[in-house]
Amino acid sequence: MTADLTPAARADASSVHALFAARAAATPTAPAVTWRDLTLTYEELDTRANRLAHHLRERGVRLEMPVAVYVERSLDLVVGLLGILKAGGSYLSLDATMPTERQRAVLEDAGVTTILTQESLLSALSDDLDVVCLDRDRAEVDRMPATAPAVDVHGDTIAYLAYTSGSTGTPKGVAVPHRAVLRLALDPDHVSVAADDVVLQFASPAFDASTFEIWVPLLCGARLAVYPDSGASLTTLVDTVHREGVTVLWLTAGLFHRLSERQIAKLAGVRRLLAGGDVLSAAQVDRVQALLPDLDVVNGYGPTENTTFTACHLVTGPAGAGGVPIGRPVLNTGIRILDDKLRPVPDGEPGELYATGEGLARGYARRPAATAERFVADFLAGHPGARMYRTGDLVRRRLDGTLEFLGRIDQQVKIRGFRVEPGETEAVLTAQPGVRDAVVVPQPGPGGDRKLVAFFVPERGARPSTLTLRRRLAEILPVYAVPASFVQLDVLPLTANGKVDRAELADRVSEERPEVTAGFTPPGTALETALATVWTDRLGLTEVGVHDDFFELGGYSLVGMQITAEIAAEYGVSVTAQRFYEHATVAGLARAVEELLADRRGGEEQL
């Protein structure tokens, strides 16, 4: 991938900007970055970044000082990032669409005093910042020396800060060193980028996927194509990919799923598509590979704290019922799968994933306690000082050695005392015929109990019934892991970073009201009356019709178990969970009980 650089040049490249300078010296006239109809060659980009670096040094930027970059998508974005590195600073990219309060909180937390911006965005900035306006101050910057300033930067020097909220909602700045970026770009086994490739910079600059999008092409001699607009419509995306001749593309799983339904055929020129940030739909991956057999699809997994990618999986055939794995560790990366006592778990058993290797961040900026909690000693490494990062993600190793993502530990719920991984339920639901995508959200139930609510998007033209899905999941999963209700959506809501917006889905659940079947039918027999009374007591309702669906009334597995326990105590027959799901109305359940009573009277007990 970097064959045209001499071994000495690569060995000397202990920083991102040093490797880029070697690349610019090797291919000075090659196009480095394009935006709309503007282009900078490698030499032009190197020179502009050198001049900006001198300007920043004059403004007081020193080693590892955080400098914010608050610009619209443009050539200025790339010049700004590279210039900060050449000055010895660490960059902090801010999304131009970021709310003002969030922006101020991030800047204050990082201790930023200097910010790069554009004239159109000046009004959004506070007065206490030292502002470098890249377009307005261009003439002043251009008077600076064209050669790089002498700055002592090495592999462990912080290159950038990336803010992530995590489960607490409090923004934390992940401090990523140069070495971690070089590990991502140099000879990775997850993607090979050559000089004739074009990589699209599409993700928000504040999202760590932009690390891959920007530095992999620039450090490999390829062309970086900056997405032309701040908006992210699917039509503009596919048009940009076609117009720019993009060959390597990174998308969130959510965007990948949307494209696969409508416009994936327009990506015929792309040779490798990496998707990640959430669980990939096996059905959608299979569909894309059938339509574009020459396209390599890679499922990429990795937290910001381990620099974009920890593990990757090149899909080479149908994903199957187990879903798309996240693969194996990328080059210069190690993984541990440990239990809650930090003991390795056997293959096939779930455990927390710990990441090791060259991609690790230094920690959280200005947060030593949080750093000590998540970046812990790697006692299995065999040498002092080794660290590993606690991802908080549950995985298991399959028989073929690939890793299967099961969900977040902080999304685990306990239902009737059993630990449930919503991610496992999601994987089974997504694998069902007619289901394109699915998310399972835990919610409070009556009496403080917990229940699962499944949101699913059907395949185009498919109409999977809730009853069929519930029965199928009950055949595969334990009863407590079967969702209490299923909600069909046209599309899953996404966050600004393209991930599924689980908070919005949780809000939708809280707004739901139990629905009853049109045309209330009262109980007609003594058994139906008795069962209806049990249902109203357990569900907290005033009345229940004999044809009202248990789950649509807000019922879930624990309540179902309580009802069947009362039936067993009162009538001496055992209604299995499977049978309950198949007869989830008062009338249906009454028939099931009558059948069991008849069998018992005939001397045949059915369990």
Describe this structure in words.
With 607 residues, this protein is of the alpha/beta class. The chain is 33% helix and 22% strand. Among the domains are: 1-178, Rossmann fold (3-Layer(aba) Sandwich), CATH 3.40.50; 412-511, GMP Synthetase, Chain A, domain 3, CATH 3.30.300; 526-601, Non-ribosomal Peptide Synthetase Peptidyl Carrier Protein, Chain A. The strands form six sheets. The protein has a seven-stranded mixed sheet, sandwiched between helices. Strands 11-12-13-14-15 form a five-stranded mixed sheet. Strands 16, 17, 19, 20 and 21 form a five-stranded antiparallel sheet that branches. Strand 7 (158-164) and strand 8 form a beta hairpin. Helix 3 (42-58) crosses helix 4 (75-86).
Average pLDDT rating: 87
Q: What kind of sheet is the major sheet?
A: 7 strands, mixed
Main sheet: strand order? 6-5-3-4-7-8-18
Percent of residues in beta strands? 15-25%
The second-level CATH architecture of the domain at 1-178 is 3-Layer(aba) Sandwich
CATH T-level topology of the domain at 1-178: Rossmann fold
**Shape descriptor:** elongated
- Total count of strands: 26
Rg (CA only): 28 Å
Per DSSP, the total helix count is 19
Termini separation: 63 Å
Helix proportion of residues, in percent? 25-40%
Please report the first level of CATH classification, the CATH class of the domain at 1-178. Alpha Beta
Class derived from helix and strand content: alpha/beta
Residue runs with pLDDT of under 50 for 5 or more positions: 513-518
